[in-house]
Design a protein that fits this description.
The protein is α+β, with helices and mostly antiparallel strands. Among the domains are: about 210 residues, Isoleucyl-tRNA Synthetase, domain 2, CATH 3.90.740; about 40 residues, no CATH class; about 60 residues, Ubiquitin-like (UB roll), CATH 3.10.20. Helix content is about 35%, strand content about 15%. The protein has 31 helices and 31 strands. The strands form eight sheets. Strands 22, 23, 24, 25, 26 and 27 form a six-stranded mixed beta sheet that branches.
């Protein structure tokens, strides 16, 4: 502290300083904890016995689950937490029963990677991080109901994560009823013969393994051998959403390859239509809705079967079934399961040399190409590259409408993640197919007449012609002709023909793929699944939950050379043989049997798929959630037809990860009758990001931002010139500012005000520590308006405020209230500042009604100083549950407005009049004004145009 400040503090010992703020803030945080100030009553508890409290509207406010990082918080992290806290406080003061709390999403890779590096058990480091983050958040004065907080690593929490997994495992999607149903009901249909088995045999004739395979084709959680994203460098598989556009892991930036492994999946695709349709009823940003719509990717078209000798048929999905006569070859994804079955031992006679890739046999060519394709990401494979790659499988398929034998290739531009993993190639009318056909010297046949004059001889074209507004040509056989039809009519006609001949039908396809749910890691929820000696998966009974995570000697999965795709996962849990191999009685009548546990763990997304429900009823050990409690806080109501959390605040980066997964789990639980809400989050708000300047030296390495000096518009670190760009804030960029630093220097209330005042909440903004002092001074002026800095005595007087002050006060009340409700906290602070400045300039002691209203206005934003001032003003109850001020409309309206009087379009007078004046009254006043009378100089009046209260236009005769 400088000498000047020290002298000022001696002269004003009761001045609001950082030291005083620290004392005030600590005392009130202790008070809130001791009194349970923020505890929200549930309908089955206190609420039931308090009619007045029960009559209050409820408000459930949530932040996205934080992960307890070892680096702790920087000032960018609390932006959303402070915003929801301000909003929650305002809602309490406007009569709502508010539930606002915060837990920790604590499973996942960061703690495990730290454990691998240091040997520290993930639980130890995670719990230490939680304790640190909890202390940092507490210092900010966040009004959370601490009774409801938890971490996903607590066994009593993940017991219910495992229980939900079993509900999903034991369910199937009934497409006729359009909802999930218990798997036992499906079994009953097979047993009774109501539903036929895939091969037509009686259910009783199937072996246990065969029955398990049949049910696996229906279960909403199932294990399958399928192409997955394999990251050798992480030693685990990843969901599509966890792979970056350039084919690397989102965490760690390791290469990702396609590999076929047996993994658990969630059949989220069964809910594709509902996930799409229910977006319309949600109050979400349109950008997020659009991302989900695009990710789900609904498209209408047709399924077409192309027979292949000795291998049945290759099925394709196409949205351009009208161009079927133009299909001159087929392409399968390299991972397609039919590839091995269709390749012959040798190249067919006359095979074009370009098709073979220089390989001696189809098997050799396919193996080499698959390895090449596995090293590319889906984005790279679909890029519009000039050179198309692929290889002939040696097999031919039959075009069902022309009977023509067309070659079957594999190529990396076709993905298993979309459609059926196979396409019919119509090179004349698709740019990628055209490029491939030219590269491999394949036929290009025009079936949609070009409108650009190029003619129908496609062999002369330089590129494809794609159009939905043209006529079909060259599209006829002995039974059907599409020639002369427009695209829409041709689609309908050919779809009918395909169905009549049993070689296809109209269908809907989705881009959405089933959710890969296995991870080859340690630090995650164990699957409540065991396998018998025949390899059949059995769910653990509820009485055996939670299945706790065992101790292992080595936390790390077996990782490999990141560039070596030819590897297999080895999980940490598989090394604990005593835990893996068990003898259990599952209560299914089979008695004690030997089983093998699942050694994969659930992904880190599992715990965040349902955490909103645990906040409602965190200590319930008998049920997922009490139905009455869930319906009270989250059930459907007017304006919220699918129910859900009233306000959910977080970053936009989770649009197709957490948000989509949580919606899926919510719908399954709703279908099975466990919850009344079909959607988890009714209103979503995406806050922006707090950015900071990053300074880099000549090597491009970040240097400590706090040690950079500015001289003549340039920036220097230890005498060396450095560059400056605006970017993220973080420890690795050496530009992080911790909230602890700001709280120490200015106080938590100042930090809260500054973060809310920086700009609109949904817009990113740069951090500037030098600007924080502005909000600090606002609090000092506020304090000085109520407390004498020399004596510490309250200076307010019991008198009525004057007219000007009343107008300033009620305009502020009206504006701040609206801004708070609309989450426009920056403008709310501006209005409080304007009122406080008015009161400072007015001078003299504040009238008590004005002082109390001022404190209540700022209470949601700066709760500690508000509590202190409220108590000093003589109140014994906390400010938290006081009523927010209500504006008097009489003082909100301007007392007068300025009316312009014009003659022939030129201003001749300005009148100060009441805003409620009538046209007749205003006309009379304008015509009587001396300046107007003089300007008319006796001339007659042809017309008077009145636009009360702002304009009178006089047209002389």
């Amino acid at each position: 502290m400088s000498e000047t400040n020290s002298a000022a503090d001696v002269a004003a010992p009761h001045r609001y300083t950082a030291a005083m703020a620290a004392d005030i803030e600590a005392r009130w945080q202790d008070f809130w904890d001791a009194e349970g100030t923020y505890e929200a009553p549930n309908p089955t508890g206190d609420l039931a016995g308090d009619p007045e409290l029960a009559a209050r509207p409820k408000k459930f406010i949530m932040d996205m689950f934080p992960y307890p990082s070892g680096a702790g918080l920087h000032v960018g992290h609390p932006l959303g937490y402070i915003a929801t806290d301000v909003f929650a406080r305002h809602q309490r003061m406007t009569g709502h029963n508010v539930l606002h709390t915060l837990g920790f999403d604590a499973f996942g890779l960061p703690a495990e990677q730290y454990a691998v590096q240091t040997g520290t058990h993930p639980r130890i480091s995670t719990e230490a991080n939680i304790a640190n983050m909890t202390a940092q958040l507490r210092r900010l004065g966040l009004g959370h109901d601490k009774r409801r907080s938890f971490a996903t690593i607590e066994s009593e929490y993940y017991k219910w994560t495992q229980w939900i997994f079993l509900q999903i495992f034991n369910s199937w999607y009934d497409t006729e009823a359009d909802r999930a149903r218990p798997i036992d009901e499906l079994v009953a249909q097979f047993e009774s013969g109501e539903r036929a088995t895939p091969d037509g045999r009686d259910w009783s004739a199937l072996s246990a393994v065969e029955r398990a395979d049949v049910l696996g084709g229906y279960r909403l959680a199932y294990a399958s051998d399928a192409p997955v994203n394999w990251s050798p460098g992480l030693g685990t598989v990843l969901a599509n959403e966890e792979v970056t556009a350039d084919g690397r892991s989102e965490r760690g930036n390791f290469p990702v390859f396609k590999a076929k492994l047996r993994q658990w999946n969630m059949r989220i695709t069964a809910y594709a239509d509902r996930l799409l349709n229910d977006l319309d009823g949600l109050d979400w940003p349109e950008a997020i809705k659009l991302q989900q719509r695009n990710w789900i990717g609904r498209s209408e078209g047709a399924r077409v079967d192309f027979p292949v000798d000795g291998a049945g048929s290759v099925t394709v999905f196409t949205t351009r079934q009208d161009t079927l006569f133009g299909a001159t070859y087929m392409v399968l994804a390299p991972e397609h399961e039919l590839v091995e079955r269709i390749i012959p031992a040798a190249w067919p006679e006359g095979t074009h040399p370009v098709w073979t890739g220089g390989h001696a046999s189809p098997a050799e060519a396919v193996t080499a190409y698959r390895k090449q394709a596995a090293s590319k990401s889906d984005v790279e494979r679909q890029a519009e590259a000039k050179d198309k790659t692929g290889v002939f499988t040696g097999a031919y398929a039959t075009n069902p409408v022309s009977g023509e034998q067309i070659p079957v290739f594999i190529a990396d531009y076709v993905l298993m993640g979309y459609g059926t993993g196979a396409i019919m190639a119509v090179p004349a009318h698709d740019a990628r197919d055209f490029a491939f056909a030219r590269a491999f010297e394949l036929p290009v046949r025009c079936v949609v007449e070009p409108s650009d004059g190029r003619g129908t001889d496609a062999s002369t074209w330089e590129d494809a012609f794609a159009s939905y507004d043209a006529k079909l040509v060259n599209s006829a056989n002995d039974e059907i002709s599409l020639n002369g039809l427009g695209v829409a009519d041709a689609k309908a006609r050919i779809t009918e023909w395909l169905k009549e001949h049993g070689v296809g039908e109209g269908t809907v396809n989705f881009r959405l793929r089933d959710w890969l749910f296995s991870r080859q890691r340690y630090w995650g929820e164990p699957f409540p699944i065991v396998y018998d000696e025949e390899g059949i998966a059995h769910p653990l009974p509820e009485s055996m939950l939670p299945l706790e995570l065992p101790e292992v000697d080595d936390y790390s999965p077996r990782t490999f050379d990141p560039d070596d795709a030819d590897t297999q996962p080895e999980t940490p849990l598989s090394r604990n043989a005593e835990w893996v191999n068990v003898t259990l009685d599952l209560g299914d009548g089979a008695g004690l049997r030997n089983y093998r546990r699942e050694t994969n763990t659930m992904p880190n997304w599992a715990g965040s798929c349902w955490y909103e429900l645990r906040y409602l009823d965190p200590n319930n050990s008998e049920k997922l959630v009490d139905p009455a409690i869930e319906e009270y806080w989250m059930g459907p109501r007017e304006g919220q037809p699918t129910g859900g959390v009233d306000l959910y605040v977080g970053g936009a980066e989770h649009a197709v990860l957490h948000l989509l997964y949580a919606r899926f789990w919510s719908k399954v639980l709703h279908d099975l009758g466990h919850v009344s809400s079909a959607e988890p989050f009714h209103k979503l708000y995406n806050q922006g990001m707090i950015q900071a300047f990053v300074y880099r030296d000549s090597r491009g390495i970040a240097v400590p931002a706090a040690e950079v000096e500015e001289r003549d518009g340039a920036y220097y670190y230890q005498g060396e010139k450095v560059s400056r760009v605006l970017g993220k804030m973080g420890k690795s960029l050496k530009n992080a500012v911790t909230p602890d630093e700001i709280c120490t220097e200015f106080g938590a209330d100042t930090l809260r005000l500054y973060e809310m005042a920086m700009g609109p909440l949904d817009v990113s903004r740069p951090w500037d520590t030098r600007a924080v002092v502005g909000q600090y001074r606002l609090l000092q002026r506020l304090w000085r308006n109520i407390v004498d800095e020399e004596t510490g005595e309250v200076t307010v007087v019991d008198s009525e405020p004057g007219e000007d002050t009343l107008r300033a006060l009620h305009k502020a009340i009206d504006g701040v209230g609206g801004d708070m409700a609309g989450m426009r906290f920056n403008t709310a602070i501006a209005k409080v500042t304007e009122l406080n400045n008015h009161l400072t300039k007015a001078g003299g002691p504040l009238p008590r009604p004005v002082a109390e209203a001022l404190v209540l206005l700022i209470a949601p934003l700066a709760p500690h100083i508000a509590e202190e001032l409220w108590r000093r003003l003589g109140h014994t109850e906390s400010v938290v549950h006081q009523d927010f001020p209500v504006a008097d409309p009489a003082y909100v309206v301007d007392e007068t407005v300025t009316c312009v009087v014009q003659i022939k379009g030129k201003v001749k007078a300005r009148l100060e009049i009441s805003p409620s004046i009538t046209d007749t009254e205003l006309e009379a006043l304008a015509l009587a004004d001396p300046a107007v009378v003089a300007a008319l100089d006796g001339a007659g009046i042809r017309k008077v145009i009145v636009r009360a209260p702002k304009l009178v236009n006089i047209v002389p005769a």
